[in-house]
Amino acid sequence: MKFKQKIKNLFFKKIAQKKYTKTLNLKDIKKILIIRDGGIGDAICTYPLIRELMKNLPHVEIDIYASLNNHFMYKYLPYIDNIYIKYKKRQWYKSWIDILKMRKNRYDLAIDDTVIRLHRTIYTKIINPTFVIGSSDTNKRYGFDRSELSYYYKTYNSNDITHIVDKRLRILDLLGLPNNNNKMDFYLSEKRNIHIQKYFEESKAYKFIALNTDGSNSSRTLTKEQIITLCKLLYKKNIKIILLSIPKKYTYFEKLIKENNLLNVELPFKTNTIYDAAEIVKNVNLLISPDTSFIHIASGLNIPTIGLYWNNPIKYIEWGPRSEKSYAITPKTKEENILHIDLNEVKDKAFEILESSKKSF
């Protein structure tokens, strides 16, 4: 470990101390801050915790400290009072404005089960909640985890391989609240997209597969060859595949469909927001996707899902699909990519799900 990192670690451990002089009493909790930056999937996998907190503590106000990448995912969540944002470094002053706003709110409890970081702990200390609880996280970065820092009133062990939703619900155990509902949710606007609804209404003779091909990086993204092969394997007269595309890749997919004569593949919509894509997912019989937020959207809507993962239990167990009908498929190799996913296995599982599907529109 470099000398500079050692000094940073010592500083972190020094400031992350607190002597609690009273015991946390649920009756005294009026305002809760949930620290949940990260991505879209991180937000969705926190919905069950928020729901269960409100079910058990209906009198509390819950605020979210989110990121630029996921703050919009709380837009339709019925339990949230205020959303604050951690901005990028070049907009540091906006972050500080929100930090000072949160400080004025005088939170009784802050929940932090994000990855342990010095800067996040400093922000939390400035916000100054009465109690702070969260996950232990790992000691890989600093040589210690949150369980060794007295600033955190209580922590739960988060180092086992368990679905991330179940891990986050351990907050309820720390608070002595019932922890018996790990069902996932997803919240859409009450105002439906007319074009999407009309398309599915007019296509009742078909069964639909939503195919998302892109992950957050190339190791979690289907190649052009894999896309073509999978679409051809899934060809049947009564099946339509809807490609989920971000706007900038729409032309690319149009060309791919035309050049490879993919007769069962369509691009009927230009989705401008994650909620447009989610409304499509809500109407299909099956979602096929690499390890991305679409898996969690489908889980929240209970849409049958085939998730494509690295052969790593941290990926396919912690972030796996939770729909009633779902499969996590991995390659046989241990490489950190999905290049060797067995597409015939994907096809077989897809047809198995579609044959049992009775969904109508």
Could you explain how this protein is built, in words?
- With 361 residues, the chain is of the alpha/beta class.
- Helices cover 35% and strands 16% of the residues.
- The chain contains 14 helices and 12 strands.
- The chain has helices at residues 3-15, 40-44, 47-56, 92-104, 118-127, 164-168, 170-174, 194-201, 224-233, 250-259, 274-282, 293-301, 313-316, 343-356, and strands spanning 31-35, 61-67, 82-86, 109-112, 131-135, 154-156, 207-212, 239-244, 265-266, 286-290, 305-308, 326-329.
- The strands form 2 sheets. Strands 3-2-1-4-5-6 form a 6-stranded parallel sheet. Strands 9-8-7-10-11-12 form a 6-stranded parallel sheet, sandwiched between helices.
- Helix 10 links the parallel strand 8 and strand 9.
- Helix 4 (92-104) packs across helix 5 and helix 9 (224-233) packs across helix 14 (343-356).
- The protein is elongated and about 70 Å long.
- The mean pLDDT is 94.
Set down the secondary structure blueprint.
Blueprint (H helix, E strand, L loop, with lengths): L2 H13 L15 E5 L4 H5 L2 H10 L4 E7 L14 E5 L5 H13 L4 E4 L5 H10 L3 E5 L18 E3 L7 H5 L1 H5 L19 H8 L5 E6 L11 H10 L5 E6 L5 H10 L5 E2 L7 H9 L3 E5 L2 H9 L3 E4 L4 H4 L9 E4 L13 H14 L5
Parallel strand pairs: 1-2, 1-4, 2-3, 4-5, 5-6, 7-8, 7-10, 8-9, 10-11, 11-12
Q: Cα-atom Rg, whole angstroms? A: 22 Å
Q: Which structural class fits the helix and strand makeup?
A: alpha/beta
Task: Note poorly predicted spans.
Answer: none
Residues in helix, %: 25-40%
Mean pLDDT: 94
How are the strands ordered across the major sheet?
Answer: 3-2-1-4-5-6
